[in-house]
Design brief:
Strand order of the largest sheet: 3-2-1-6-11
Order of helices and strands: EEEEEHEEHEEEHEHHEEEHHEEHEHEHHH
Largest sheet: 5 strands, mixed
CATH superfamily of one domain: ATPase, nucleotide binding domain
Strand content: 25-35%
Number of helices: 12
CATH class of one domain: Alpha Beta
CATH topology of one domain: Nucleotidyltransferase, domain 5
CATH architecture of one domain: 2-Layer Sandwich
Structural class: alpha+beta
Distance between the termini: 35 Å
Radius of gyration: 25 Å
Helix content: 25-40%
């Protein structure tokens, strides 16, 4: 039996499927996938839970399958959040520091971020992420890490991700009622981006398009920083609906047609290419032209890509300094549609590649696992591993700081007055200062979000 502490679980609650993925970090620092469980998602519509009972059953089935696959039991999971209720905005804020003689510490950044968390949102909305971009110290701009600098006024641009609190709470309830602890919540486009993008792409400027069943998620990076996120409430399911209506067939057949014979480029099919579909209950078989099938797919795919491209333009891609040099990376189940890469390049004029989540996976990972379908799940496992490592680091620091305190208190020198003795709190504060940047803002926020959601139940 494996050590439970090293195990990390990602739970991707999608519109089409729910994926539970169990993994751990191997000795080479790569992610080794131990087990995957997949279940049909019946209680989720466009990324939002609309049937709690069915979603719980699907989560339990996916987790059971993953546990059987890996040969171990899991207790907690890091969960992805997406859906049409997600929106993002840019915000600038500042604080004036009273003790400007001292250098800027992490607590100053925390104060600034918690100030942004108090922004008044629309009724029923809650801030999910506050992501600092660049800082300014006393008017000096383009600072990525202000800790250790002197200055009276600390200013920052923020990328703020907002979602509906009821939707977040429903997902949390589903996870807890499935018998799992909530390890953390992560925005799905950010998880997918971590799994499929390289650091060079993030630096050069890249747009990640994650085409799921119910939604298409977008995450834009430039200079290594997340710049824009958006969730478009269309995905592969809309294409299936169009095929169902356009060819007068049932949904199951439409999905099969799309996967096996579908293409986003109608010119690829000859006029005489026809596929025969069995009729229902003794009816005559239906003959469907592949050219017509591709036309139906093409029109809807163009609509989805144009909406995403509009978001890329809203970010400012056409400005020289905001140009996305690395172009576009497509991932998610929808990325498997034939000739989609060529269509995206044709519409946007940007270099495009299909994103496989193999950037951080161990070399012996099965080919099926390194598929665009599992991009979000792999990203969530990576996030869970990161959070675990952080907790271990924090515990070690606490242990070593209490050791130091004991040593200081046991061996006082004659030169030090009683008043000047170092207290436990001071040692811990010094320790925190020394390791400040390691405890990042997301993790602090997630602790707060978890407390808030626990109280809300």
């Amino acid at each position: 039996m494996m050590e439970q502490e090293n195990i990390a679980v990602g739970l991707d609650i999608g519109t089409t499927k729910i994926v539970a993925m169990i993994g751990r970090k191997n000795e080479y620092g790569k992610v080794e996938i131990l087990g995957i469980g997949k279940a049909k998602s019946l209680g989720v519509h466009r990324g939002v839970v609309n049937n709690i009972t069915q979603t719980i059953q699907s989560i339990q089935q996916a987790v059971r399958d993953a546990e059987a696959n890996a040969g171990l039991k899991v207790e907690q999971a890091t969960v992805g959040i997406a859906g049409q209720h997600i929106r993002s905005l840019q915000h600038s804020d500042y604080i004036t520091r009273a003790n400007y003689e001292d250098v800027i510490e992490e607590k100053d950044i925390d104060t600034l971020c918690s100030q942004v968390h108090k922004l008044v949102m629309l009724p029923g909305e809650e801030i999910i992420h506050v992501l600092p971009q660049e800082y300014k110290v006393d008017g000096q701009g383009e600072i990525t890490q202000p800790i250790g600098m002197h200055g009276a006024r600390l200013e920052a641009n923020f990328h703020v991700v907002v979602g509906q609190i009821s939707s977040i709470r429903n997902i949390v309830r589903c996870v807890k009622n499935s018998g799992l602890e909530l390890g953390g919540v992560n925005l799905e486009p950010l998880a997918s981006a971590n799994a499929v993008l390289s650091q060079e792409e993030k630096e050069a400027g890249v747009a990640l398009i994650d085409i799921g069943g119910g939604t298409t998620d977008l995450a834009i990076f430039k200079d290594g920083i997340i710049r824009h996120t958006a969730v478009i409430p269309f995905g592969g399911n809309v294409i299936t609906e169009d095929i169902k209506d356009g060819c007068s067939i049932i949904e199951k057949q439409a999905e099969l047609l799309k996967v096996k014979f579908g293409s986003a480029w109608p010119g690829e099919n000859k006029d005489n290419e026809i596929v025969s579909i069995p009729g229902l209950r003794g009816r005559e078989p239906k003959e469907i032209s592949l050219k017509n099938l591709s036309k139906i797919i093409h029109y809807r795919a163009v609509e989805i890509i144009e909406q995403v491209f509009q978001e890329i333009k809203n970010y400012g891609h056409e400005e020289q300094r905001k140009k996305l040099i690395a172009g576009i990376v497509i991932t998610g189940g929808g990325a498997q549609l034939k000739h989609l890469k060529q269509l995206v390049e044709y519409i946007t004029g940007m270099d495009t590649r299909i994103g496989l989540p193999n950037e951080h996976l161990a070399g012996d990972t099965e080919k099926d696992t390194a598929s665009p379908i599992f991009a979000t799940a792999v990203g969530l496992v990576m996030k869970a591993i990161h959070e675990q490592e952080h907790k271990i680091l924090e515990q070690n620091e606490e242990n070593s700081s209490s050791k130091e305190t004991l040593e200081v208190e046991e061996e006082p020198t004659n030169e030090v007055n009683d008043e000047e003795k170092i207290t436990t709190e001071e040692v811990k504060t010094q320790k925190d200062r020394a390791t400040g940047p390691r405890r990042n803002i997301f993790e602090k926020f997630f602790d707060g979000l978890k407390d808030f959601l626990d109280k809300a139940e």
